[in-house]
Amino acid sequence: MQRQVLKFGAWLDFDAEWLAPDEADRLLATLLARDDWAQLPIVVFGKEVLQQRLMAWAGPQAYRYSGLTLQPRPLDPVLAELTDRVSAAAGVEFDHVMLNLYRDGDDRIGPHADDEPELGPDPVIASLSLGAARRFVAQPKRRYKSKRRERLVLTHGSLLVMGGSFQRAWYHGVPAQAAVTEPRINVTFRKLLGPPGWRPGPTAEHP
Ligand SMILES: O=C(O)CCC(=O)C(=O)O
Hints:
Blueprint: E1 2-5, E2 10-15, H1 21-32, E3 41-44, E4 47-50, E5 54-58, E6 63-65, E7 68-70, H2 77-90, E8 96-102, E9 109-112, E10 125-131, E11 134-140, E12 150-154, E13 159-164, H3 166-169, E14 170-174, E15 184-190
The site of 2-oxoglutaric acid has 11 residues, from strand 8, strand 14 and strand 15.
């Protein structure tokens, strides 16, 4: 893992070759063949819009974001094994898996942060990429002079771990890339501290 330290106490760990190419090929084929891919609506500025990608998920606890509730679903053996391996690599016991299928370069995810309270104040979130290489763009939430963006290319078999204040201080997204014609799957691992609506209790530092 290569660590990139960002402003405001955020960091990104990246391993471009976390999976060997043949294992990444097999996993991509297995995940593409899932029968639970769905295009789901979220609420943006009070309006329901379909997300421009397909999704699947698994985990013992519901996860809610942008008005969409992903109900609990059991982890199948493939996702359970992958969760164990990614948890060991990131040093966090993940229990929720979200899969995004970008069918081609038109599919995308806009700038956002995974900052739901039930993820805890500074969550570590891991993201495995399979298939077409796509650009990952991060920008600070707080505007500053240079309007600097951080860019990474998420390649087949790579693992990205986001941590520190990344979700609190930065937005991230995967923009459309018209030239891309092949699919990409992203498998994102989270640790949920409670059900939707859960809030961290007061601590000594934040009474
Ligand atoms: O596809 C990716 O690499 C990013 C996915 C993402 O940002 C998310 O699921 O919150």
